[in-house]
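Table S2 (text version). Query chain:
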Amino acid sequence: MGIKSDMTKSLLVSASIAHVEELMSWFRDREAVSNWGGSPFRYPFSRESFLEDVYWDRMPTFVLLDTVGTMVGFGQTYEKEERGHLARLIVSPGHRGKGHGTVLVEQLSEKARELFSCSEFSLFVVGDNEVATRCYAKAGFEEASYPSGDIHYPSYKFMIRKQS
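Corresponding C-alpha cell output:
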C-alpha cells in the first residue's frame, strides 16, 4: 500500500530489486553516482556492489510511481537525531522539471513520519546542486548546522524541516 498525492496521483511504494536495477541505469558516470550516493559509492558498480552501497538490506527504500506505473523517483529514509532523514533522493532523468521531486520529498517525509514517529526531517544535498536545493526549500527545508559528531563534507549542505 502506498501514499497517494492529490496533486499528481503519484504513488510511493516499497522498492523492489527490479526498481533498483532500473535505478542503476540512471547513472552514467562516477560524478553522478558520487553526488547522489556519496563519495564511498563505488563506480563502476555491479548489481551486488550497488545493492551493498545503497544499504538495500538495512534502510527503508521507496520509489515514486506515476499514474501509469513508471518509476519517476527513488528515495530512502532512516532516523537521525530524532528526525526522519531523507537520503539518496533522485528523480528519473526523463522526468525532471515536472514537480516529481517535490512530490517525492513530501511523500517520503510522510513515510518517515509513519515509520519513526517524527515531526522534523533532514537531508544532505550537494552544495552546488541548485535545482535540488530549490526543490527542498520549496518543501520547507532550510540550511542548518551539521549534526554534532557527523563528518563535515564541505561540498554538502545539511538541511532540516520542522513540521508545521
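Notes on Table S2: The mean pLDDT is 93. Strands lie at 3-4, 11-14, 61-65, 71-80, 83-91, 120-126, 142-144, 156-162.
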